[in-house]
Amino acid sequence: KSGDARNWIFTGLIVMLVVEITVMTSQSNPLPSSLFPTWTEHECVWLLHTLFPAFMNGCRSLGSYLYVDLDKQARQLLLALQEQNKDILLVLGEVQICVQ
Question: What percentage of the chain has pLDDT greater than the value 70?
Protein backbone atom coordinates (compact mmCIF):
# COMPACT_ATOMS: atom_id res chain seq x y z
CA LYS A 1 0.00 0.00 0.00
CA SER A 2 2.79 2.44 0.79
CA GLY A 3 5.30 1.38 -1.85
CA ASP A 4 4.99 4.56 -3.90
CA ALA A 5 5.24 6.79 -0.84
CA ARG A 6 8.33 4.90 0.30
CA ASN A 7 9.95 5.45 -3.10
CA TRP A 8 9.15 9.17 -2.96
CA ILE A 9 10.61 9.41 0.55
CA PHE A 10 13.81 7.61 -0.48
CA THR A 11 14.10 9.92 -3.50
CA GLY A 12 13.71 12.91 -1.18
CA LEU A 13 16.43 11.52 1.08
CA ILE A 14 18.80 11.08 -1.85
CA VAL A 15 18.12 14.62 -3.08
CA MET A 16 18.66 15.95 0.44
CA LEU A 17 21.94 14.02 0.68
CA VAL A 18 23.18 15.39 -2.65
CA VAL A 19 22.24 18.97 -1.72
CA GLU A 20 23.86 18.62 1.70
CA ILE A 21 27.09 17.21 0.26
CA THR A 22 27.15 19.93 -2.40
CA VAL A 23 26.57 22.69 0.13
CA MET A 24 29.10 21.39 2.64
CA THR A 25 31.93 20.56 0.21
CA SER A 26 31.84 23.55 -2.14
CA GLN A 27 34.55 26.16 -1.80
CA SER A 28 32.18 29.09 -2.28
CA ASN A 29 28.65 29.49 -1.03
CA PRO A 30 26.41 27.70 -3.61
CA LEU A 31 23.28 29.39 -2.29
CA PRO A 32 22.09 32.31 -4.44
CA SER A 33 23.01 35.49 -2.61
CA SER A 34 19.97 37.30 -4.00
CA LEU A 35 17.60 34.84 -2.30
CA PHE A 36 19.61 34.01 0.81
CA PRO A 37 21.95 36.92 1.49
CA THR A 38 22.70 36.06 5.13
CA TRP A 39 22.29 32.29 5.15
CA THR A 40 25.15 29.97 5.96
CA GLU A 41 25.59 26.40 4.79
CA HIS A 42 24.66 25.16 8.25
CA GLU A 43 21.31 26.97 8.11
CA CYS A 44 20.54 25.45 4.71
CA VAL A 45 21.25 21.93 5.99
CA TRP A 46 19.27 22.67 9.15
CA LEU A 47 16.29 23.78 7.03
CA LEU A 48 16.46 20.59 4.95
CA HIS A 49 16.52 18.43 8.07
CA THR A 50 13.66 20.42 9.61
CA LEU A 51 11.42 20.22 6.54
CA PHE A 52 12.01 16.53 5.82
CA PRO A 53 9.43 15.16 8.33
CA ALA A 54 6.74 17.34 6.73
CA PHE A 55 7.82 16.11 3.30
CA MET A 56 7.69 12.52 4.54
CA ASN A 57 4.20 12.98 5.99
CA GLY A 58 3.03 14.61 2.75
CA CYS A 59 4.37 11.68 0.73
CA ARG A 60 2.62 9.23 3.03
CA SER A 61 -0.66 11.13 2.73
CA LEU A 62 -0.45 11.40 -1.05
CA GLY A 63 0.51 7.75 -1.32
CA SER A 64 -2.53 6.62 0.63
CA TYR A 65 -4.79 9.01 -1.32
CA LEU A 66 -3.51 7.87 -4.73
CA TYR A 67 -3.41 4.15 -3.81
CA VAL A 68 -5.55 1.92 -6.04
CA ASP A 69 -6.38 -1.57 -4.79
CA LEU A 70 -6.00 -3.64 -7.96
CA ASP A 71 -7.06 -6.89 -6.26
CA LYS A 72 -10.33 -5.30 -5.12
CA GLN A 73 -11.00 -3.95 -8.61
CA ALA A 74 -10.30 -7.35 -10.18
CA ARG A 75 -12.60 -9.04 -7.64
CA GLN A 76 -15.42 -6.57 -8.41
CA LEU A 77 -14.94 -7.07 -12.14
CA LEU A 78 -15.05 -10.86 -11.78
CA LEU A 79 -18.21 -10.67 -9.67
CA ALA A 80 -19.87 -8.43 -12.28
CA LEU A 81 -18.87 -10.89 -15.02
CA GLN A 82 -20.26 -13.77 -12.97
CA GLU A 83 -23.59 -11.95 -12.55
CA GLN A 84 -23.73 -11.24 -16.30
CA ASN A 85 -22.97 -14.89 -17.00
CA LYS A 86 -25.84 -15.97 -14.73
CA ASP A 87 -28.21 -13.57 -16.51
CA ILE A 88 -27.14 -14.89 -19.92
CA LEU A 89 -27.64 -18.50 -18.77
CA LEU A 90 -31.17 -17.66 -17.56
CA VAL A 91 -32.02 -16.05 -20.90
CA LEU A 92 -30.58 -19.03 -22.78
CA GLY A 93 -32.67 -21.36 -20.62
CA GLU A 94 -35.81 -19.36 -21.48
CA VAL A 95 -34.91 -19.48 -25.18
CA GLN A 96 -34.49 -23.27 -25.00
CA ILE A 97 -37.88 -23.60 -23.32
CA CYS A 98 -39.50 -21.42 -26.00
CA VAL A 99 -37.87 -23.42 -28.82
CA GLN A 100 -39.08 -26.75 -27.50
Answer: 98
pTM: 0.62
Single-letter amino acid, residue 8: W
- How far apart (Å, rounded) are the C-alpha atoms in residues 23 and 12? 16
pLDDT at 1: 59
In a 13 Å sphere around the CA of 68, the CA atoms on its Cβ side amount to 3
68-88 per-position pLDDT tens digit? 788 889 999 999 999 999 999
Handedness of CA 32, 37, 42, 45 (dihedral sign): negative
CA 49: distance to chain centroid? 21
CA atoms within 13 A on the CB side of 79: 6
Nearest-angstrom CA–CA distance, 96 and 100: 6
Distance CA 29, CA 36 (A): 10
